[in-house]
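Collaborator request, handled under Task 6.
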Amino acid sequence: MRAFDLTPLYRATVGFDQVADLMDRALANDVGQTTYPPYNIEKTDDDAWRISIAVAGFSDDDLAIEVKDRGLNVTGRKSADEAERTYLHRGIATRAFERRFHLADHVKVTGAGHENGMLHIDLTREVPEALKPRRIAISSDTKKDANLVEAKSVN
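Structure tokens returned to the collaborator:
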């Protein structure tokens, strides 16, 4: 695989640091990325998403969801009583895992549920009013300002 140096992006752009960081993170994490546990990301509305993670064999107490610094971390650790069992065949993977997702600006976790071996995490984008686009009215007021002086030609 080829290594890319994104340093020139930092020197030549202003305000695009997040894009460069995102590309840097995507290229760095791509190598050796585990596929366990499998997950889906679905769009449920214009500004809403749902992450569904297959966590068969894990109870609610074995799972933890944490949001920190625009990062969503989902971890699963089996309890100690699992080691006492003797299996003739073990086909269901219940090994410990940590799955990380990077959240965009203003995306909040609104809820989580665990049913039928699936962990569902609901996300919504809540853009503050100050950042939403707004229409500016254009006035066609033809009155002149009293403080302005009319310019006259000298010649």
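The cover message to the collaborator said: "The longest strand covers residues 107-115. The mean pLDDT is 80. Please let us know whether this matches your experimental observations."
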